[in-house]
Design a protein that fits this description.
Elements: H1 13-26, E1 28-31, H2 37-48, E2 56-57, E3 76-79, H3 85-105, E4 111-119, E5 125-128, E6 138-145, E7 158-162, E8 165-173, E9 180-184, E10 190-192, E11 199-207
Antiparallel strand pairs: 1-9, 2-3, 3-4, 4-11, 5-10, 6-9, 6-11, 7-8, 7-10
């Protein structure tokens, strides 16, 4: 029996079961309509109202290694806090999902960080890993799409690659409203294709605590 710890306010039991079984079997999962319509609609409204001035150009690397490389990554981001009801509800849902996945899969997830991402027309993100084996503390990556009335002709797909062959694609995923993608951060390279319209999502990562007696684990 699943103990939801409040997650059932945001996700259905069937969606949670599919997510857990898919992660265990193959390391990734795509879910449609996993979250409540109320939560998705509030997040869509939130991101659509964000002015460009409140977002920053995304970069690659962390802390002293961070750099902006527009030939690799072209999205603008804003880290998500709990300062509005929509953002707070999203973080509450992801905290509850963390607890549930830890109980079901024993992943040792410690905390979660996420940002709104905006790709303007023709924006893309080249093939990359969210974490490298033994080099990072991101364990589980999540993407929630916030694009209403998205057409296949708009492009902007997330392409995922085989964990044993980074030149072999295994999924091409349209960024339609409410679609939720979860995958093991160290295992799957992925890329974001250009779109012919503006594209929104929430990208997030569950992390383990990599702090030791010599080094404090940074959050970003």
């Amino acid at each position: 029996m699943i103990t939801l710890t409040g997650l059932d306010n945001f996700m259905s039991v069937s969606a949670i079961e599919i997510l857990a079984s898919s992660l265990k079997a193959k390391g990734w999962c795509v879910l449609d309509d996993a979250f409540s319509c109320e939560l998705i609609d509030s997040l869509v409204m939130e991101v659509n109202q964000l002015p460009d001035e409140m977002m920053q150009q995304a970069g690659i690397g962390r802390k002293s290694d961070h750099q902006v490389k527009l030939d690799v990554r072209q999205d603008c981001i804003m880290w998500i806090d709990g300062n509005t009801p929509a953002r707070r509800d999203f973080l509450v849902a992801m905290e509850a999902l963390k607890v549930t996945l830890n109980r079901m899969l024993l992943l040792g997830l410690f905390d979660y960080e996420a940002h709104f991402a905006r790709y303007h027309e023709n924006g893309y993100y080249d093939k990359h890993f969210d974490a490298f084996v033994g080099k990072g503390n991101r364990v589980l990556s999540t993407v929630l799409y916030l694009n209403e009335r998205w057409l296949g002709s708009n492009g902007g797909e997330l392409v995922m690659f085989d964990e044993h062959d980074v030149d072999k694609s295994i999924a091409t995923i349209l960024p339609v409203k409410g679609r939720f993608v979860v995958f093991l951060s160290e295992s799957f390279a992925h890329q974001v294709n250009p779109a012919n319209v503006c594209r929104h999502s929430i990208a997030g990562w569950y992390r383990v605590n990599a702090t030791d007696r010599l080094t404090i684990d940074p959050s970003r």
